[in-house]
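thought: fold this chain, then report.
action: predict
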Amino acid sequence: MTSLPPVAPLPLWDLLIHLSGGRCQCIGRCGNKHAAGQGRCEHENGGYISKRAAPIRLLVAPKDPFELILPAHQQARLSACDLAAWCPPCHDKARTRAMREHRAALAELHTDDALF
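observation:
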């Protein structure tokens, strides 16, 4: 799972988790359609993914997956309205997808600017 430092201080984390209803706010940005949760991830803070997994601890991170690839010091500058509650699996998958798309865009940009 993720090993990134927290983006939001504890009082802000408490507020955002309360506003999210204690539930991951991913609506498919991770690549999962979340059909069981009617389009929203069904993982809850303190809930379990499986019998063998530890309880889920929701993260507070940027809503926009492309802001997930920003350095932590830039993420920490985001306002509360730009943050959302994420379960670790959705956070990691959304961040990975954003990195892949960013790298693909950079590769395409570099092939278009070739000097040959």
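thought: worth noting. The first strand starts at residue 59 and ends at 62.
final: tokens above.
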